[in-house]
Design a protein that fits this description.
The protein is mainly beta. The protein has two domains: 1-30 and 245-337, no CATH class; 36-198, Methylamine Dehydrogenase, Chain H, CATH 2.130.10.10. It is 0% helix and 53% strand. A four-stranded antiparallel sheet has the order 1-28-27-26, with no helix packed on it. A hairpin with a 2-residue loop joins strand 3 and strand 4 (56-61). The relative contact order is 0.16.
Length: 337
């Protein structure tokens, strides 16, 4: 996923547009260490949160909100996918062009499997028992057998893939092609791209979330829009304004809320889907650089990765402000107290 933009220190506050939109800051989970980060993944059943951080994955117990372990040797880690039946995890390592297969009981790496260049987003597909690693520079998806780790096939995508979502009933995986302003539709049985849908008025989408019941995709776009698309036809149904530097989306089926985390503005836009329409109900102030997140559907809590920055330094043009060492953390937001 994308790096932080120059304007990430320009965080701003916007008051909730509706009184019943009550997401608020709950707590901070300190992690520490140095280096960047990318995806966060919640395993609600196991009450765990997996956080990518530099060359490792940090594992957090959500019952206690404490760090319980690490998955190491994951250089340039991007994403974490989980197979709950086998209790295995699959980690995309962008710098070493491979996926780590991990025992989630011991956090030990069982094997590493080569992929295309710079695997980024990663997804577990249970009906075929396969793992899809979306290769950013490789413009492809590497499909692995989850049980053996063998490469099943490589799917050419003709574009730079970003986040992806699975629709088990439709037998499809949807993937943002960031540089093409399109969503690619992949048939999980044939491993072929069956459709490519334009996302206008959105541009350069990174994050994606799905409403399986109403067949909606939510796309976080660089031109400060969250686009809602019909996942059966590819028709764009609407769009709402969001902050700058979006990099992740989430959807809560119980509340019908869609989320877009925006690192440059330091906000998360919360929109409500109803009657085929999407409307912003709250703009939650988070933290500068908090661009990736995960939602726990069991508790409805949001988890965003963040770090403190040196505010006294004016970085050169095109350079990010310097991180304060040891301040990496996860910020927790919710409607509970």
């Amino acid at each position: 996923m994308k790096q932080l933009g120059l304007s990430l220190l320009l965080g701003f506050s916007i008051v909730s547009a509706r009184a019943d939109a009550t997401y608020h800051f709950i707590k901070e989970i300190a992690i520490g260490g140095e280096g960047g980060w990318d995806y966060l993944t919640v395993d609600s059943a196991a009450k765990r949160l997996y956080v990518s951080h530099a060359t490792k994955v940090v594992v957090i117990d959500l019952a206690k909100d404490t760090v319980i372990g690490e998955i190491t040797n994951t250089p340039g880690v991007h994403g974490i996918a989980i197979d709950p039946k086998s209790n295995r995890g699959f980690v995309s390592n962008g710098r070493s062009n491979c996926v780590s297969i991990v025992d989630l009981k011991t956090f030990q790496t069982l094997s590493q499997v080569g992929t295309g260049a710079n695997p980024d987003a990663i997804l577990y597909e249970p009906s075929q028992n396969e793992v899809y690693a979306f290769n950013g520079r490789g413009h492809s998806a590497t499909v692995l057998a989850a049980d053996t780790g063998k490469v099943v096939t490589t799917i050419p995508l003709d574009g730079k893939p970003e986040f992806a979502c699975l629709d088990p009933q439709a037998g499809c995986i949807y993937n943002n092609l960031e540089d093409k302003n399109e969503v690619a539709v992949i048939d999980i049985r044939t491993h072929t791209v069956t459709n490519r849908w334009p996302i206008a008025p959105g541009e350069t989408a990174s994050g994606m979330a799905i409403d399986l019941k109403e067949h909606r995709l939510f796309l976080g776009c660089d031109n400060e829009k969250m686009v809602m698309m019909d996942s059966t036809t590819g028709k764009v149904l609407g769009a709402v304004p969001i902050g700058a530097g979006v990099d992740a989306n989430a959807f809560d089926p119980a509340t019908r809320l869609a989320f877009a985390s925006c690192g440059e503005s330091g906000t998360t836009t919360i929109a409500h889907e109803e009657g085929g329409k999407l409307s912003v109900v709250q703009t939650l102030t988070t933290a500068p650089g908090a661009r990736t997140m995960a939602l726990d559907e069991a508790t409805h809590r949001l988890y965003l990765a963040a770090v403190n920055y040196e505010t006294s330094t004016n970085p050169p043009a095109g350079k990010r402000p310097k991180m304060v060492a040891g301040t990496f953390k996860v910020l927790v937001y919710g409607t509970d107290k």
